[in-house]
Design brief:
By secondary structure, this protein is of the alpha/beta class. It contains eleven helices and 25 strands.
């Protein structure tokens, strides 16, 4: 087993933008009409509590907003908000608000028949841009009337991954720029308080698209409120049966790619400092990427979350739950789904990475230590941190943290690794039931929680020294807080535990 040492300088201050709870992704919005979806979202909101949720399909036919009809030989348009109201009502009840991704194209408004996914989202431009912008503005008017002025603070993004021909017909750059311009101008004319971003691209030709988009905006006198892009970190997958197997890419290479977008944006005087939102990020970009269900996914994302805020104002994990149908209805309980929560509210290891970062944020925003495998914050004379180990041999980390007295401190650790928090392994060991019974689901869930341990440590010469084991593909959250010892009269813990 390896040994490592971390010495924390309490006076050090390190820039650390921990915006872990800003936004989370979802499958298409229409899935919010289902019971299992809402149960998973309720669990995630109770445990972590995201501010916004972003998904596809706002204008797709299953949400049923846009309708054309003939009357007296004239084509007329009407809107139906029954489902979108039900969806957003459910979101607000759970304390989360929509990050409005404007897409895909209603069938009756589409210029073509190209669709994507099992649920056939139309990915062609509008046949009439005026009808498109009228639809967008009518929806914003309706939302403001129903939910009040707070709607103007809900983020807006124009389309999704137009640099991929599957998501935007022929990946036509100029046509997307037209869509963005017409949409942006219409929204700003209606109410300039709305914040509108784009181009929502993935990592294919990202530099070319970002440069072209900013040059277009500069030429047209447009000033988007933020730049949006996506971030995935695996090589091209190998498909075996229903499943995709991918190798993780080097973290530094992926962080450099994100920094290149920041540099491009800042190279334009008009757009320097413009916020960048990663409106999707994960490891694998496929909805059957088996890595999503694993402990290494949790450890890898711990490093991602420690640094994504360096050059991005916000970042949204894709997705909160496994109710997801891009490639059809899931075939099994663990199917490599994007979600941090599996069916039956079984938290995957990755769920705890996000939970730990939220706990870190609640503890303090004063970062005093950060490296490739740790981040530590301080509040008064107490500490909290996250340690991780990405696919390396088990390691004991010795932590030396300075305090101002010689009091006793309580060290609490919550450990997620392949030994103590691995629901995937238990599911495999009982035979990989595709459709587990209630009893099997509860059994699997019992293996999906961190191991919590505690110890009392005495400060010596103003330093608290502790050792924390971080196993291979493990993530450990710890708190080190001054112990307030208030025993009741006559109670002796040492005497209690000495009985045999």
């Amino acid at each position: 087993m390896k040994m490592g040492k971390i010495t924390v300088d309490p006076n050090c201050r390190i820039k650390f933008n921990n915006n872990v709870d800003y936004c989370v992704g979802t499958g298409r919005l229409g899935l919010a009409l289902t019971e299992e979806y809402l149960k998973e979202l309720e669990f995630v909101q109770k445990m972590i509590g995201f501010s916004y949720i972003r998904g596809h399909g706002l204008f797709s036919d299953d949400v049923s907003i846009y309708h054309e009809y003939e009357e007296n030989g004239e084509t007329k348009v009407e809107y139906n908000y029954t489902y979108i109201d039900r969806i957003i009502d459910s979101y607000l009840k759970l304390g989360i608000r929509p990050y409005l991704e404007l897409g895909f194209m209603p069938g009756q408004l589409a210029s073509g028949t190209q669709t994507i996914f099992y649920w056939k989202g139309n990915t062609t431009p509008p046949k009439d841009y005026k009808k498109w912008t009228d639809m967008v503005i009518a929806l914003l008017e309706h939302l403001k009337k129903r939910y009040g002025e707070e709607v103007t603070s809900w983020p807006i993004e124009v389309w999704n991954e137009p640099n991929l021909p599957g998501f935007w017909y022929k990946a036509d750059m100029e046509e997307y720029f037209k869509l963005f311009k017409e949409t942006f101008l219409a929204i700003k004319e209606y109410d300039s308080r709305f914040k509108v971003g784009g181009p929502a691209i993935c990592g294919v030709n990202d530099a070319e698209w970002i440069k072209a988009f900013l040059s277009f905006c500069k030429r047209e006198g447009l000033h988007p409120d933020r730049i949006t892009r996506h971030h995935y970190t695996v090589e091209f997958p190998e498909r075996i049966g229903h499943y995709d197997y991918s190798k993780l890419e080097d973290s530094e290479m992926r962080f450099a790619n994100l920094k290149s977008t920041r540099d491009i944006v800042d190279s334009y005087d008009e757009f320097k400092g413009l916020p960048i939102h990663l409106t999707e990020f994960s490891t694998s970009y496929t909805p059957k990427g088996v890595i999503h269900d694993t402990n290494i996914n949790a450890a890898y994302l711990a490093r991602q979350l420690s640094r994504l805020g360096d050059v991005n104002e916000a970042y949204s994990y894709w997705t909160f739950g496994d109710v997801f149908e891009e490639q059809g209805v899931p075939d099994s309980l663990f199917y490599g789904g994007f979600g941090m929560v599996a069916a039956g509210n079984i938290p995957k290891p990755t769920f705890w990475t996000f939970y730990f970062y939220k706990q870190l944020k609640l503890f303090s925003d004063e970062c005093v230590y950060r490296d490739d495998n740790a981040v530590i914050v301080k509040k008064d004379n107490d500490y909290s941190g996250i340690l991780w180990n990405i696919d390396e041999e088990d390691e004991i980390r010795e932590l030396l943290m300075e305090v101002t007295d010689s009091s006793d401190y309580t060290l609490i650790t919550k450990t997620v690794d392949e030994n103590c928090c691995n629901p995937l392994k238990l599911w495999h060991d009982i035979g990989e039931p595709a459709y587990p019974t209630h009893a099997e689901t509860e059994l699997i869930k019992s293996a999906a929680w961190p191991l919590t341990e505690s110890t009392v440590i005495s400060a010596k010469d103003g330093v608290v020294s502790s050792q924390i084991t971080v196993n291979r593909n493990g993530v450990v959250y710890f708190t080190l807080t001054k112990r307030q010892f208030t025993p009741d009269r006559g109670y002796d813990y040492d005497k209690v535990v000495s009985y045999h």
